[in-house]
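Weekly sync, protein design subgroup
Attendees: M.S., D.O., the rotation student, P.L. (late)

Item 1: inverse folding check
M.S. brought a backbone from last month's batch and wanted to see whether the design step gives back something sensible before we order anything. D.O. pointed out we never logged the input encoding, so this time it goes straight into the notes. C-alpha cells as presented (339 positions):
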C-alpha cells in the first residue's frame, strides 16, 4: 500500500463490518511490501479477539466441476438461512502483474450483490496448495467483520491442493458425475481428507449418473480411515443449477460442526493449524533472510551452477551455504534477546 494506514481506524472499521475497511484491510495483509508488515500484524492483533466464531469450509474440485457456480448457489442458500457469507476465492496469478486473473466476482454476480455476502478474489501467487499465503489472515479479518460462514475456493484439485485443509474446519470436495474409470483415476490423497463429497451437476441427463457416482464414492470412502474422527465422510449428489441437495449439504455442514465441537476435535484442529502456520511463517522468514543475506548472496549463484552441472552434491552445497549464513554478521554481532 502506498500510504501507511491508521491501524486503529482501520480496525474499528473492520469490527464495525464496514466493507470498504474490510477490503483495505485484506489488501494490507496481502501486501508483499516489507514496510506494510508491521501495520498488518498490528491490525491482526487488534481484531483477533473478534474472530474465530465462524465455520470455515474449504472447497476444491476438478476443473469444469462448477466450483464458482456451486459456491454462488450454496452461498445464496446459506444467506437465506440468516448467515453472513464471505468467499475467499483464490485465483490463478498473472505472470505479468502478479494479480488475480479470473476474478470470481465476475462469476458470482448475484451473490456479490447480496449485502450479507462478501467476495474477495486473491492471486494464488507462488504458494503451493491453491491458496494464497495470507488466506489465513484474510479469514481472521472477515470473521472479525461479522461473517460467520467462510468459504475458501481453491485454484483447482490435485495433491498440492490439499493445503487448504490445513487452514479450514471442513474440507468439501466437488466431483463430476463419472464412471468407474474416472473414480479410479482421481487422486486418492484428496479423497482421503475430504469431510463432505458432493457430486455436482445432478440434473437433467446427468442426474442418474450423479446418483451412481455418489453411491460408488460412498463405498470407496467407507474403506478409508476417516481424516477427522469422530466424523465419517458424507457423499451426496447436488445440483447448483436446480438447487437440489443444497439444503441437505448445509445441514451436513452444521452437523459436522456440532459433532466436532462436542468432541473437542474442532478446537484441537484449529490449535494444530495455528502451530503449523507459525512454523510456515518461520520457514518463509528464514528462507527470505537466507536469500537476502550478503554473506550468502555471493556464493548462492555459484552453488546453484555447480549443483545443476553435477559438480557438487546438493546436500554438501546446502550445508556450506547454511554454515556461511550462520557465520554471517547478523549472527556474529548478536541480535539481543530474541523475545
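Designed sequence read out in the meeting:
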Amino acid at each position: 500500500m502506498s500510504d501507511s494506514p491508521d491501524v486503529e481506524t482501520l480496525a474499528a472499521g473492520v469490527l464495525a463490518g464496514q466493507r470498504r475497511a474490510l477490503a483495505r484491510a485484506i489488501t494490507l495483509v496481502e501486501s508483499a511490501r516489507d514496510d506494510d508488515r508491521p501495520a498488518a500484524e498490528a491490525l491482526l492483533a487488534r481484531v483477533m479477539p473478534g474472530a474465530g466464531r465462524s465455520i470455515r469450509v474449504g472447497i476444491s474440485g476438478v476443473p469444469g466441476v462448477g466450483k464458482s457456480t456451486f459456491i454462488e448457489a450454496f452461498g445464496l442458500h446459506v444467506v437465506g438461512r440468516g448467515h453472513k457469507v464471505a468467499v475467499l476465492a483464490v485465483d490463478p496469478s498473472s505472470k505479468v502483474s502478479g494479480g488475480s486473473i479470473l476474478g470470481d466476482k465476475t462469476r458470482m454476480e448475484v451473490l456479490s450483490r447480496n449485502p450479507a455476502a462478501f467476495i474477495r478474489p486473491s492471486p494464488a501467487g507462488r504458494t503451493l496448495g491453491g491458496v494464497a499465503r495470507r488466506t489465513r489472515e484474510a479469514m481472521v479479518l472477515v470473521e472479525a467483520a461479522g461473517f460467520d460462514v467462510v468459504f475458501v475456493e481453491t485454484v483447482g484439485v490435485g495433491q498440492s491442493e490439499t493445503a487448504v485443509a490445513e487452514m479450514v474446519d471442513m474440507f468439501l470436495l466437488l466431483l463430476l458425475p463419472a464412471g468407474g474409470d474416472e473414480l479410479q483415476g482421481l487422486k486418492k490423497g484428496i479423497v482421503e481428507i475430504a469431510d463432505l463429497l458432493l457430486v455436482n451437476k445432478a440434473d437433467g441427463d446427468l442426474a442418474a449418473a450423479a446418483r451412481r457416482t455418489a453411491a460408488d464414492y460412498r463405498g470407496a470412502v467407507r474403506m478409508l480411515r476417516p481424516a477427522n474422527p469422530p466424523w465419517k465422510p458424507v457423499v451426496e449428489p447436488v445440483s447448483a443449477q436446480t438447487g437440489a441437495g443444497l439444503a441437505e449439504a448445509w445441514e451436513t455442514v452444521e452437523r459436522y460442526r456440532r459433532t466436532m465441537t462436542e468432541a473437542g476435535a474442532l478446537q484441537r484442529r484449529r490449535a494444530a493449524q495455528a502451530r503449523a502456520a507459525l512454523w510456515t511463517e518461520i520457514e518463509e522468514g528464514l528462507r527470505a533472510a537466507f536469500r537476502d543475506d550478503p554473506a550468502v548472496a555471493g556464493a548462492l549463484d555459484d552453488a546453484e551452477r555447480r549443483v545443476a552441472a553435477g559438480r557438487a552434491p546438493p546436500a554438501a552445497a546446502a550445508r556450506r551455504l547454511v554454515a556461511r549464513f550462520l557465520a554471517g554478521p547478523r549472527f556474529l554481532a548478536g541480535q539481543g534477546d530474541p523475545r
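Discussion: The two ends are 29 Å apart (CA to CA). The CA atoms of residues 2 and 212 lie 54 Å apart.
Action: P.L. to compare against the previous round before Friday.
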